[in-house]
Fold this sequence. Notes:
Layout: H1 8-17, E1 37-39, H2 41-44, H3 49-65, E2 68-72, H4 78-92, H5 96-100, E3 112-114, H6 127-136, E4 142-146, H7 167-192, E5 210-216, E6 219-220, H8 221-224, E7 232-235, E8 241-246, E9 252-255, E10 262-264, E11 272-276, H9 278-283, E12 293-295, E13 301-302, E14 308-310, E15 313-320, E16 327-328, E17 346-347, H10 348-359
Parallel strand pairs: 1-2
Antiparallel strand pairs: 2-11, 3-4, 4-5, 5-15, 6-14, 7-12, 8-11, 8-15, 9-10, 9-12, 13-14, 16-17
Helix pairs in contact: 3-7, 4-7
Bound molecules: 2-oxoglutaric acid and fe (ii) ion.
The site of 2-oxoglutaric acid has 11 residues, from strand 5, strand 8, strand 12 and strand 15.
Amino acid sequence: MFAITIRRSFVNNILKTRNLSTLAQDVRSDSTFRIPLIDFSNFRNAKSYGEKRRVADEVVNGFKEVGFVYLTGHGIPKETIDQAFSQSAALFRLPAQTKETIAWDDPRANRGYVKIGRERVTQSADAEEIAALRAQAPDFKETMEIGRDWDPVWKNKWSQEKSVPGFKQTMLSFFQTCHELHSIVMRSVALGLNLDENFFDDKIDEQCHNLRLLSYPAVQRSLLSKEGQARAGAHSDYGTLTLLFQDSVGGLEVQNPHTKHFQPATPIPGTIVINAGDLLARWSNDVFRSTLHRVVAPAAQKISNTESMTPSRQSIAFFCNPNFDTNIECLPTCTDALRPSKYDPVTTEQYIVGRLAATYS
Ligand SMILES: O=C(O)CCC(=O)C(=O)O
Ligand SMILES: [Fe+2]
C-alpha cells in the first residue's frame, strides 16, 4: 500500500540544486517566464469546437511551459470563496486542544487538523531525510484536510457544529464546487492534448480529492530566515491539478525550471491559480510540468529596531486526484516512436498514499 515509485535521480538532482533560501528579496524575476492569465469563461460558454479549442490550447500550453496558470472567468462566485475563507479562519481560531480532537492521523485517510511543524513538504521521498528536515525546519503553517464525505472507509473529522456553525456545510459545498470546476478544466486538458473531450470523465468522477485549508500565522521574520525554513518548503503537488485560492498577502513563488530562480505568483483578485501535479506530469509522459513552488515571507512589518513581523496569510488548496483505482499509464497522445513512455503504470492510490506517508510525522 505504501509502495512508491518515484524518479529517484530527478529527486536527487533537485535536492542538490535546490536553493533553500526563502526570503522574498532572493527572487530575481525573468520576464520571459510568466504565469499566463486565461479567461476560462470562453471555454465554459463556448458555442463551437474552435472556441473551446483556443482556450484548451492556452491551458495546455500554460501547463507545458510553466506548469501554472491563473484562471479568470472560472464561474465560482466571489461570495462562495469569501465564505470558505471566513469559515476556515473561524476553524483555525479554535483553541489548540479543540483542534487536537480532530487531528490528522493516517495518510490513507488524509483527513483532519495538522498543527504547525507536523508537515514538511519537500521533493524528497525518503522518510528519514524528510524527518531530519522536519526537525530542522518545519513548515510554518497549520492545515485542515477534508476528503469526500461519503467515503466507504475514511470519515472526515468535523469539529462540533456549535464550535464553528455552518463549517461542515460550507466545506462540503465548496468541495463539490471545486470538483465541478476541476472536471471542466480536465476537459480542456483533454482537448488540448488531442484526446476526446470526455476522455478523463470516468477516470476522475469519484471525487478522491483533498480540500486543504491553510493558515500561516503571523511570525517573526527572523524565524523564517533560517536556512531551509519557509512557510511552505519547495515542493511539487502530487495529484493531477491543484486549484489554489490565495488571499492578498502574497508569498507564493514558482520556480522557473530553466533558471531555477523562484518568481512570485502574485495574488490577482478574482483569479484561481491552477497548477499541474506530479501525477498529471507522469500521465502525460512529462509533456506537462509539475513545477516546484514554495511559500515565503512577504514584506514584513517592523515591530522593533531589530525585529519585524510577517503578516498572517490564508489560502485554500483543492488537490485533484483521479479515481483511486485509475491506472496512470502514459496518455495515448503523449507517446510515439520518438517518445517512448517513461514510467511504469501505477494506480492513483499507490502513488498518492506513498507520497503522503513520507511527508508527515
Ligand atoms: O498556500 C499556498 O499558497 C500554497 C500551498 C501549497 O503549495 C500546498 O499546500 O501544496
Ligand atoms: Fe503545493
